[in-house]
Amino acid sequence: MLPIKIVGTGVYVPGKPIDNIELKQLANIEFDHEKTEAKLGIYKRHIAHLRGINETTADFATKAAENAIADAGVSPSDIGLFIVATDTPEFITPATSILVQGRIQKGETWSSTFDVSASCASFAIAFDNAVRIMATDESIEYAVVIGVYNMPAFIRPGDAFGYTIFADGAGAFVLKRVNNEQSGYITGQLLTDGTQWDYVGIYAGGSRNPITSKVIEEEKWGLLNLQRLPGDRNVRLWPMVVDKLVSKANCSR
């Protein structure tokens, strides 16, 4: 067990929630909302731009982090590590974590910042990395790990798949180094399959496909669903991950 524990949590979502009926009106799309509710369990979501709210990734992340810091009862100046976990960053560069640190600590400090971009696994990876960094660097007493999503900013008009699946918001943990306590970080287990990179993602805007007028005209910008993910993905993978994690931690199921 590593001597790191969660001492504060915070969340932020923009505006009032949008149910499936209102989503059809605001986004001007059609979809089977009953199927979405029954199969995916999605009834409502928060989407900033559909509410006319001028906020994006760094805004969501900063507000969630501020809420977590307040919940932990610590000073922003106490934070020695900021990690933002997202695959919808404010910019390609600089890192979103740099913006968050600047907004929260208001200037130059002896803190570290970086982003983790690993699709849906981003927050789990960021959390695991934060714990292990703190466990080996005694100068860091507190860290903030933020998971944030702003995929609706990349959804093209009329994309029913994107609007029904994705939403805006952020959640944050404040982590603290502790001594002589029963509570701590037991372990983590990650699983990767990089061969499935060409299923769902944002494929324009990076070094391979810079944004050009041709990319825009061909509607190859923003969120693209290139092919269907395997239908048994979650059912097959989650039990396997849990079994591996329990075994690694020498625990029983």
Provide the fold topology:
Blueprint: E1 4-12, E2 18-19, H1 20-27, H2 33-40, E3 44-45, H3 57-72, E4 79-85, H4 96-105, E5 112-116, H5 122-136, E6 142-150, H6 160-165, E7 168-177, E8 200-202, H7 213-217, E9 223-225, H8 233-248
Parallel strand pairs: 4-5, 4-6
Antiparallel strand pairs: 1-7, 2-3, 6-7, 8-9
Strand order of the largest sheet: 1-7-6-4-5
Structural class: alpha/beta
Strand residue percentage: 15-25%
In total, the number of strands is: 9
Task: Identify the CATH class of the largest domain.
Answer: Alpha Beta
CATH-assigned homologous superfamily of the largest domain: Thiolase/Chalcone synthase
Assign an overall shape: globular
Our Rg estimate from Cα atoms comes to 20 Å
Can you summarize this structure?
By secondary structure, this protein is α/β, with parallel strands linked by helices. It has helices spanning 20-27, 33-40, 57-72, 96-105, 122-136, 160-165, 213-217, 233-248, and strands spanning 4-12, 18-19, 44-45, 79-85, 112-116, 142-150, 168-177, 200-202, 223-225. The strands form three sheets. Strands 1-7-6-4-5 form a five-stranded mixed sheet, sandwiched between helices. The protein has a two-stranded antiparallel ribbon with strand order 2-3. The chain has a two-stranded antiparallel sheet with strand order 8-9.
Task: Give your account of this protein's structure.
It is a single chain. It is built from eight helices and nine strands. 32% of the residues are buried. Strand 4 (79-85), helix 4 (96-105) and strand 5 (112-116) form a beta-alpha-beta unit. The model has no long low-confidence stretch (mean pLDDT 95). The chain has a five-stranded mixed β-sheet, with helices on both faces. Helix 3 packs across helix 4 (96-105). The chain is α/β, with parallel strands linked by helices and 253 residues long. The protein is globular, with a radius of gyration of 20 Å. It has helices at residues 20-27, 33-40, 57-72, 96-105, 122-136, 160-165, 213-217, 233-248, and strands spanning 4-12, 18-19, 44-45, 79-85, 112-116, 142-150, 168-177, 200-202, 223-225. Helix content is 33%, strand content 20%. It has two domains: 4-177, Peroxisomal Thiolase, Chain A, domain 1, CATH 3.40.47; 194-248, no CATH class.
